[in-house]
Amino acid sequence: xxxxxxxxxxxxxxxxxxxxxxxxxxxxxxxxxxxxxxxxxxxxxxxxxxxxxxxxxxxxxxxxxxxxxxxxxxxxxxxxxxxxxxxxxxxxxxxxxxxxxxxxxxxxxxxxxxxxxxxxxxxxxxxxxxxxxxxxxxxxxxxxxxxxxxxxxxxxxxxxxxxxxxxxxxxxxxxxxxxxxxxxxxxxxxxxxxxxxxxxxxxxxxxxxxxxxxxxxxxxxxxxxxxxxxxxxxxxxxxxxxxxxxxxxx
Amino acid sequence: xxxxxxxxxxxxxxxxxxxxxxxxxxxxxxxxxxxxxxxxxxxxxxxxxxxxxxxxxxxxxxxxxxxxxxxxxxxxxxxxxxxxxxxxxxxxxxxxxxxxxxxxxxxxxxxxxxxxxxxxxxxxxxxxxxxxxxxxxxxxxxxxxxxxxxxxxxxxxxxxxxxxxxxxxxxxxxxxxxxxxxxxxxxxxxxxxxxxxxxxxxxxxxxxxxxxxxxxxxxxxxxxxxxxxxxxxxxxxxxxxxxxxxxxxxxxxxxxxxxxxxxxxxxxxxxx
Amino acid sequence: xxxxxxxxxxxxxxxxxxxxxxxxxxxxxxxxxxxxxxxxxxxxxxxxxxxxxxxxxxxxxxxxxxxxxxxxxxxxxxxxxxxxxxxxxxxxxxxxxxxxxxxxxxxxxxxxxxxxxxxxxxxxxxxxxxxxxxxxxxxxxxxxxxxxxxxxxxxxxxxxxxxxxxxxxxxxxxxxxxxxxxxxxxxxxxxxxxxxxxxxxxxxxxxxxxxxxxxxxxxxxxxxxxxxxxxxxxxxxxxxxxxxxxxxxxxxxxxxxxxxxxxxxxxxxxxxxxxxxxxxxxxxxxx
Lengths: 250, 272, 287
Fold this sequence. Notes:
Oligomer: heterotrimer
CATH class of the largest domain in chain C: Mainly Alpha
Largest sheet of chain B: none
CATH superfamily of the largest domain in chain C: MetI-like
CATH topology of chain B: MetI-like fold
Distance between the termini of chain B: 43 Å
Number of strands of chain C: 2
Strand content of chain B: under 5%
Distance between the termini of chain C: 45 Å
Radius of gyration of chain C: 23 Å
CATH architecture of chain B: Orthogonal Bundle
Number of domains of chain B: 1
Order of helices and strands of chain B: HHHHHHHHHH
Largest sheet of chain C: 2 strands, antiparallel
Number of domains of chain C: 2
CATH class of chain B: Mainly Alpha
Low-confidence stretches of chain B: none
Shape of chain C: globular
Structural class of chain B: mainly alpha
CATH superfamily of chain B: MetI-like
CATH architecture of the largest domain in chain C: Orthogonal Bundle
Strand order of the largest sheet of chain C: 1-2
Order of helices and strands of chain C: HHEEHHHHHHHHHHH
Mean pLDDT of chain B: 90
Structural class of chain C: mainly alpha
Strand content of chain C: under 5%
Helix content of chain B: over 70%
Largest interface: B-C, 89 and 86 residues
């Protein structure tokens, strides 16, 4: 079942067209990976799924992105509620310069949850889901910036989970991390699949093949090929895809 | 040019700079400290005690009132310029030109303007209010610039993280950006207070030079710097001038130390 | 929805705050220019700017500010001649020669130097430089040299602060490239780093000029304040700023307007100086 459906999406930064006529389903409780060389539009597309592109000056969009049959680019769509439903994890771990607890509680408090007991529970639940509860449970008051890079990224995942999203977008979440932290995050991401729909942008093709169910290959703002990950990596239909995954360019 | 010649010149220049600073400060301190008598701190000014206390208290009042008005205006301007306005927008250009020009105007022109506008046109007379409002305009560019710089030093990824959690702009600014930028803004605000403490030309023709503690916004008064100016231009109370200079320097010293401490905290926060 | 309303309300508040600076500039323009320009029109621009006599209490009164223009320009140039080499070289010291431990003391010292009230500088000059000059050249000791020396010191922190950051902003690779060619530390800095920082250094000089020409209260204490064209550096001088501050307290009628017009001229100088500064900054930004 398709959780998000992208239809005839075109995106411009000023005069430059960054995305050309994108059509793509993102299936529920699966991991969809976006791969492709730098500047191919994969990050741009992921940012149009929670309308983070709205923050970029001169960005215009046509076409539609439907989430459960609701066009997120419709006028009546509340962006803040949309972003609550579609969480995001960034390339560089970016915890707020405040305590671990306050980092996680920021989202729920933003959406009006004030009751301390409920917030406490949410914090614990989110940290557990992000597989970092055991490491930090004794010093939740500690500044999140004092943690290691890998721990910070898991804090960021927990922070995104705390607002109870349906979709989780991850923009190269491990590109700034060491191999051990990367492995932990990959394991965590696979585990999240049962509750969430995930989209992950990655440069790392092994990562895409290890964790994703579907893969979309991007080149110059277009989707060249979209299929089951297994098929893309073993039997691509397009020459460009084969060139890319076999490392001939990019 | 030989190495040693260059090195010699550089060291010599540094010696002149810091030598003269050291000399000025120690000169005032050595001449002034012995005259820092209790009589100078009597609550009421008379021509015999030449008390500086009313002027000191007036200085605090002027600084306090100026900051209360100028800080929100300056910080909000910074918010608008950095967090809201689109880059390259014509209006922003206009505001930038305005603040840059304000920053360059000499204090005597502020004084003259304050006199023409607040004192005469708005009929505030020589008053605390006229002085404060003139000082507000004068320190605005300082606060705006400090705010802009501190906001720019806050990493964009923090704002994005907040937006991605569904927070609006206002919440993002007040809960995420402002706390990080706070030390830098505060350090600018404190520098602004230093500017007010040292100001004479802009206040002389807006506040007047009454020796009493102002009892309302509409009464005249003199700040410490003005007091020192009056004393030294009259030439009657040289020792008291020195002593007033000591108090002024100490005030500025405290203000600067605070500001340095806060801005070092900002760099620590943002580079951590 | 409620949040959205608050959001746009506050955006309005921020915009209005930002417009206060613009409003202030407009008001200053209206009141200062509006007060001075009618006088200049009536008295004649060249009579005003090039008139050599300032005798407001005579009948008929004369309001020529050439002496003050010459005074302001001369003491500013003098201050630059003293302040720029010392300031720029001190900046070189701060950026390239100063040990870290010492820097932690000297940097706040420069900031303190910028923050010392002008009246304290002026008082210092009155008590120390003036008697010194009196012994050296006779007369009152209140002369152009005194003012130049005083302003030369007062503009130091402005020049040091900006020049230092300009020198620090020069990519280290320039410097190491020069070292690699066998040039000494000193030579690399003087021939490579400092020239590369020249637009920042120039900006600092221009800000210094602005500070010197606008300084009032320190100058008025030690300048002698005679409104005549000085023919040597050991004579007293009156500047544009001090002209205003000296007579504003009692001036009325045309005299008062002439003082406001003096401020217009001063304002004009500042606008030109600031314009040059912005131009350099913009050129830098484009590069």
